[in-house]
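Sat 14:20. Reprocessing the chain from the morning session after the first attempt stalled halfway. Input below, unchanged.
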Amino acid sequence: MSSALTATVPIAEDTWADIRLLPKVLLHDHLDGGLRTDTIIELAEAVGYRELPANDPDELADWFHKSGKGSLPRYLEAFRHTVAVMQTPQAIERVAYEAAVDLAADGVVYAEIRMGIALLTERGLTLEEVIESIIKGFERGELETGIVARTIVTALRHHSDSEAVASSAVKFAGRGVVGFDLAGPEADHPPEVHAAACEIARTGGLGLTIHAGEAAGLQSMWQARLACHAQRFGHGVRIIEGTRTGRGEIIELGSFARSIRDQRVPLELAMSSNVDTGTIASLESHPVEALLRAGFAVTLNTDNRLMSRTSMSNEFAIAHVVHGFRAAELLAVTENALHAAFGDWPTRERLLRELVRPHFAEFTPED
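Finished this time. Tokens:
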């Protein structure tokens, strides 16, 4: 079972088919949040992992999607099963390869996929061996499909090994790794604790994207920007708390929100995930449209394709059906993502010129 390739909102069949064909750019996707369920079952059998909540691919997919609904802590608990089966080089490479193939099948032409690499060292792998396995899988997927797949190495806020993780990541700068990320609980784990790790990554040539503005609000984002020089915000949806809105529009910006907009700091928004984790009450109330109209550097993302039963096509469909995005808006978020990506500019510019703009010029979605 691959990543979800069906729409979770009502959409005209022809429009869904057209959306599937659009070239997409993905900046925020977790490797351990997008496994195929049949792969999980096979890998669990191979390593003797007996704790899966179901052994049928469809039943397991339902469990992953429903188990964490409405709560970020519960949502994150499901990762113990995916991480448990990703503890060998072969398993990691397979998962990375399949992620690249699945994303390419969904029209993704460029992806930055992140992984908390220390989570995959429970059976003795080194941090470097984990990274090497991820890169090998992405390279196989690239050769087969043409997708550009790059790695963001993630350290966890509530762990004490972020400097070691960053040091391992920079060894692969320019060789598949393009960014460094901080994830994990925002509350009680401020990013300044990991400022040294972020500096290692930054001086080593990696881009910095930090999870902030999901579980916590503006202070978390401000800390990530000030202490760690975050170039992008993982989620960042709660920047809306720094604005004043009326009738679904942003009518006034606070000083911090204005600086994020005017300095073009990208927001890695993930609508389905934001609802699943309880960050936002509903798809209809998500501020994606208001933020884009107000000039923020909005991008659309999946976050965790398995846990949120989503795909980039599905996120595009939600934007179109629920928030009225048409060709111009979908092109805008795609261009935002290419400009915000950490990979080499010649590759990104080629994708923009040869794939993105020509295909969007032909896209005329039905209502």
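The first strand starts at residue 24 and ends at 30.
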